[in-house]
């Protein structure tokens, strides 16, 4: 991919992730635990993980978090988001690299969702200075598995659609 095309692609991914983040904030999601969300913007992170380098994927993730906090967040939201995102990104990158033939995009997404929750709980534990917060882990793990499956399936179909479009463009149909 040319440098300019890649920059445009990365910018589009960041803007799509921001839009999904904003839309998700408007959805009334009745979860048992406070602060639980679907993680719609993680669809873009998974797509980036499968179409860009690890460094570029982390760039998309970091800029999306910083901009979303700038648009309407707080320092604590930044800490929770970064904690979850770093754990999620590292776990997904390891799963994709080491177990690439054994784990599907859906499995990578589920691992990312679960580790995102673990990262956020660790941040919460450090903030409130008690490990009792980790009692939420079983409930958040179940929620993470569900949302990870949803994000994984959505990412899978989006990537297949991108491949189809790319083939048509390269074959001169568009």
From TrEMBL:
Record keyword Transmembrane present: yes
**Repeat as UniProt keyword:** no
Show the coiled coil region(s).
none
Where do transmembrane segments lie in this chain?
A: 7-23, 79-99, 106-128, 134-159
Short name of any one Pfam family annotated for the protein: Hpre_diP_synt_I
Gene3D superfamilies this protein is in?
1.10.1760.20
Q: Which residues form the signal peptide?
A: none
- Superkingdom of the organism of origin: Bacteria
Keywords assigned: Membrane, Transmembrane, Transmembrane helix
For this entry, the protein name equals Gx transporter family protein
Report the source organism.
Answer: Clostridium senegalense
